[in-house]
C-alpha cells in the first residue's frame, strides 16, 4: 500500500525498469482514476486527480488491518484477542471504518493458513506432542490449563479433553446435560469431536470438548472416568444424546442413576432414512396421507410409556397400515428397533428401550425434546473453523477462540442477563404439544399429536 497526501493507493503492476504503478483504492468502487508511478520510493509521475476527498480514518483502519495480519502470523492468540489488542488504541472514527468482526476473523484465519504458523502435522497419535502454549488458555488475564486430560502417546487410543475449571464447576451444577459427536471438524488421526453441554441459566453452555479416536463403549467410559477424575462430584440427573448404543451404555454404567434420553429429531431422522432406503421419499413428498401416516410412528413417542406397545399395535391394525404395502418395510424396521418383535407371546427387547425415545414425561415437565441447541453449536463451530478435518493445531486454536466467547457469555449470565430467547413459533409449538399431551385420552390415540408436531421437529 502507498499513502500519499491523505490518499491510499494499491499496487497495480510493475514495469521492467523498476517503476511501480499505483492506483487509488477507490478505483473500482468510487471509479477514481488517480494514479501514481514511483521509482526507488520516490514519486516520478502523477496521473489525474482524485474525484473524492481524502479519508484519514480509512487509511488508519487499513493500517490496523495490516497490523492484525502481522499479529496473526506471529502469535497463536485467539482471533478475538488479536482484534482486541490491535483495535484497543484506535479512535472511534477509525474503528467505524474497520470491517465487521466476523470478516476480520476470516482474515486472521486466512493469514494463519497461508503462514502455516503451527508445528508440523503429526503422522500418528504417538507422534502428537502438544506445545505448552497450546495446552494453556488465558482466562481473566491469567494463563490456566486448557488441555485437562491426555492419556499419553504410549496408549493404544489417544484421548484429549479440553475444558476449564470454571466450565467443570458449572457443569457440576447442571442437572441436565447434552452430549453429541461430530465428524466434519475432527482433525486427522481422530474419529470424532465429542462435546458435553450443561443446561444452566435457561440456556445450553458448551463445557467440555473431547477428541476421540473411536466410538466404542470403552472409549466413552474412559472419557467419562477422566471427567469424574477431574471433577469427582459430577452427577447429572439426565442426559440427552444420539441413539448410539455405545455412548448410552457408557453413561448408564458410569452414572447408574442417570436418565438417558434420546432426541426426538434424531428419532425422526432414523425413520426418514428408512423411508429413503426403501425408495419412498418421492411418495412421502407428494402424498399427504402417506406422509401423515408415517409421522404417526414418531407420534407414538408422545404416548404414556405404558401405552407405547398398545399404541403401536393399534396403529398397525388400522385399515391404512394393513393395506398399504409401501409402509410394511418401514413398520418392520420400527418394530425391530424401537418396539421389539413378538416371540412366543412376548416381545423381544428392542434395540432402544422405550424410555430412551418416549417424550410424554419430558413434555409434561417442560424438558427439551431435541438437542437442536447442540446441533446449532456444531454448525457455528464448523463456520468458525472454516474447514473440514482441520489440522490439530487449527482445531485447538478454534476451540480456544470458542472458549473465549464462552467466557463472555457465562459472565453475562452470571450478571443476570437473559440467554438467547426461543423464537415465538417454537414457544407456541411447545404449548400446543403440551396441551395435546395433557388432554391425552387412551381411547383416542390417533387424534393425538401426529398432525400437531411442527415439520422441522420431524425429519423433513
Automatic annotation (TrEMBL):
Domain FLYWCH-type: residue ranges: 1-52
Any GO MF annotation of the entry: zinc ion binding
The entry's keywords: Metal-binding, Zinc, Zinc-finger
Domain MULE transposase: 177-267
InterPro entries named among the record's database cross-references: MULE_transposase_dom, Znf_FLYWCH
Pfam family, one: FLYWCH
Domain of life (superkingdom): Eukaryota
Protein name: MULE transposase domain-containing protein
Species the sequence originates in: Photinus pyralis
Lineage: Eukaryota, Metazoa, Ecdysozoa, Arthropoda, Hexapoda
